[in-house]
Amino acid sequence: MASGNSLRVQQQADFARTLCHLILWAQQQGLTTTLGEVERPTILAELYSKMGKGIKDSQHCDRLAADLRLYLRGVYQEDTQAYARMGEQWKKLDKRARWGGDFAKPDGNHFEFIDEERV
Ligand SMILES: [Zn+2]
Asked: In this structure, is the dihedral angle defined by the CA atoms of residues 39, 42, 43 and 45, taken in order, positive or negative?
């Protein structure tokens, strides 16, 4: 049986592969996407939390979240709604996939996996 650590690495690998599928899909749709923040050190997550931007135990700290940057006609999109098609596609790719646009405080460019046991 896999140890806790190797299970986590497998989740991270699944997340990375699924994120690639999302980026490829977006580019096939003509959506220009680039990478934003992926891994976030715990100390930075604590600082962000104090600043009211993000949570302390973010999935970014476990390399299970990524922020993508969407550009339409060369303009970076900050509005959650601009990411809705990507969010819907993301959720179709894996049962662990959650889109930040569905959060109580919407975060449209955030794409994450939740832990297996929470699915
Ligand atoms: Zn994020």
From this structure: positive
